[in-house]
Amino acid sequence: MKLYKALLFFLLLSAFALVFAQDDQSGFISLDCGLPLNSNYTEPKSNLKYISDEPFVTTGTSHSVALEYKAGIKEYVKTLRSFPEGVRNCYAINITKGTRYLILATFFHGNYDNQNTAPEFDLHIGASFWTTVTIGNVSIFQLEEIIHIPLRDLVHVCLINTGLGTPFISALELRPILSNQRIYYNTTAPSESLALLYRLDIGSITNQPYRSV
């Protein structure tokens, strides 16, 4: 699998907002990492339906962020899963072979371990390097994105301990990209994956953050 970094420019906020329709979540997988088994909820602002990550991973331990960080944050970053044991810990997720997916991984430490120290670790898609997660401090959110076309009906998203602290993850989300969503659809060949380098909105006058849903 070839992996490329992309510099993506968005001229219009509306073009990005229409990539995924919030009411049609066919094929969406939204995992709240650390959420208790069989738990689920709908995030009110985005209307996305989140489920526990427990059925998709066999290792790791669940935690909640420290109380002082919970106010005003999204539900899916209030819990997380850390991986204190082993070098390589993976999620195994059933998807549709040959379908182009946008995969989003969210990280928010929130001083869950009372150490007040954020780690650095690597992410892999299967055996291929995706990115290094480098978090400046425990109060910073980080989102990593990749466009990936699986060659099997299964994808492994793996956290790799590089000796710089315990890997963790707050949310893992997969969004199938349909042929009419052309802003992303023609960006990769079946043997390639495309990791986000920057996203710059050069048309906004509000300077407000936004994300794919």
SSE map:
Elements: E1 2-10, H1 13-17, E2 29-32, E3 40-42, E4 49-52, E5 61-64, E6 79-82, E7 88-94, E8 101-108, E9 120-125, E10 128-134, E11 141-148, E12 154-164, E13 168-169, E14 171-176, H2 182-185, E15 192-201
Parallel strand pairs: 1-15, 2-4
Antiparallel strand pairs: 2-14, 3-4, 5-6, 6-13, 7-12, 8-11, 8-14, 9-10, 9-12, 11-15
Give keywords.
213 residues; 4-stranded antiparallel sheet; 15 strands; mainly beta; Jelly Rolls; 2 helices
Descriptive overview:
With 213 residues, the chain is mostly beta strands. The chain has one domain (2-201): Sandwich (Jelly Rolls), CATH 2.60.120.430. It is 4% helix and 44% strand. It has two helices and 15 strands. It has helices at 13-17, 182-185; strands at residues 2-10, 29-32, 40-42, 49-52, 61-64, 79-82, 88-94, 101-108, 120-125, 128-134, 141-148, 154-164, 168-169, 171-176, 192-201. An eight-stranded mixed beta sheet has the order 1-15-11-8-14-2-4-3. Strands 7-12-9-10 form a four-stranded antiparallel beta sheet, with no helix packed on it. Strands 5-6-13 form a three-stranded antiparallel beta sheet, with no helix packed on it. Strand 9 (120-125) and strand 10 form a beta hairpin. The longest helix has 5 residues, at 13-17. It starts with a strand and ends in a 12-residue tail after the last strand.
